[in-house]
């Protein structure tokens, strides 16, 4: 393995590397740094989160810029303000021996005038989120017409968040002959598209295989009934007493709700999502880094700025909208050569997604059982025993021991052990002694929640900018049902299918009685075996087979904020299909 010296880095950067305690470069650094130092080229580097990508582009940029110039020479775009600040701090650490270096972070949620003043002082490198960067360019506060290097960091995530137009606009103000360095954990079609549009014959570097997960992470899934999802989460936490985890939910609302329930139940937990102020987010992350918080419940977007070592578990409370996002989630653990566990809590209707993820990450999941209450009691007792064994005696306790010994006089060693451990055992035993088995029988994953479920046909689909997850969100919000009460959502081009439990049948049919979306009649009919049932009912009114339209909504995209509503019902405001812009 090469050393940092062999990569061709200059002395002041090597000194910073020594100061930070880095010994040998990671694989992505070893493959990327020599190429970027050796020649002016575009590059696409694919590597998982936590593999050292910031140093892979940071060191070459710091070495190649002209420190004596106050002109902006390097631009780094990243998806979130947390990641923007993190990259800025790392670059400042890498370049601390380069006198006169000025790296400025540009992001939303902070004073735009203060950031403009920092730029005016002369910033050789700007690290920015696309939204704020576009705004400041539009106001004439930033000039990137002379940049030599542009980095698109976490490119897949920026595109998932809807930043394609912003990136296009930003780069239109930059020189065509600049070097563009694209770093991404996965290589979906949109990333390939942006590489083709903005780059010239880029060198491609792949660490591992495209879109795969790290080998240091084991992948497990737990099959439960949908209504038991939260109970399963608590048991997984109790079965791992030293857990230090990120729990992923899909929406801000679910994130806040789960965090509040965990706190109410006595867990050290907190929520991290886009509705928090910057100050609130900073406080949450500070508490998490110092381990005052053991379970950080987060949305995918908010979690992009999490750079915390030693996370033991990633728990997928809900699977992500985009299957590729699972790679980013699992990359939060198993970093810096350490092992980690990625857990997925799934209901029967989601089992097929496990297979899809396995194909992408090229790793197999292990099906595991949610531990029983008595297994958790045993785990907690042994954890307490090891904690006592490994506890260093505080000598300040000596003055109190005579009185303690007097109180406990007459008890044998065995009796004292029973009493000490009964304190912990009783707490868990009383809670779990009558708790049920949470494990669901696997059965046929296509069977839905139960044999009494009803399958429906609806005349909207992919051409209306819906995917399975956005249609599910639309339906559950419109019907006021829970996250897992709408399932087996199957989106075709101009129509779709979905299931609910039979008890919701009347509700579904009544809601879609004379339902209009942007002036268009939306019909729902009971289906059988995934086929439209001719002459079936839609909201209690007979409709002949084939009465559906493949046309898109007005303007080509659904608008749930204004026109789409049932009589007397407020619009949901959710469920827009396709890629949603900065949803979390």
Automatic annotation (TrEMBL):
CDD domains: DEADc (cd00268), RRM_DbpA (cd12252), SF2_C_DEAD (cd18787). Residues 225-378 form the Helicase C-terminal domain. Residues 527-584 are annotated as: Disordered. Residues 34-205 form the Helicase ATP-binding domain. One of its GO terms (molecular function) is ATP binding. Residues 530-550, 560-569 have a biased composition (Basic residues). Pfam families: DbpA, DEAD, Helicase_C. SMART domains: DEXDc (SM00487), HELICc (SM00490). Residues 2-30 form the DEAD-box RNA helicase Q domain. PROSITE patterns: DEAD_ATP_HELICASE, HELICASE_ATP_BIND_1, HELICASE_CTER, Q_MOTIF. One of its GO terms (cellular component) is cytosol. Keywords: ATP-binding, Helicase, Hydrolase, Nucleotide-binding. A motif (Q motif) lies at residues 2-30. PANTHER family: ATP-DEPENDENT RNA HELICASE RHLE, ATP-DEPENDENT RNA HELICASE RHLE-RELATED. Belongs to the DEAD box helicase family. This is ATP-dependent RNA helicase. The lineage of its organism: Bacteria, Pseudomonadati, Bacteroidota, Flavobacteriia, Flavobacteriales.
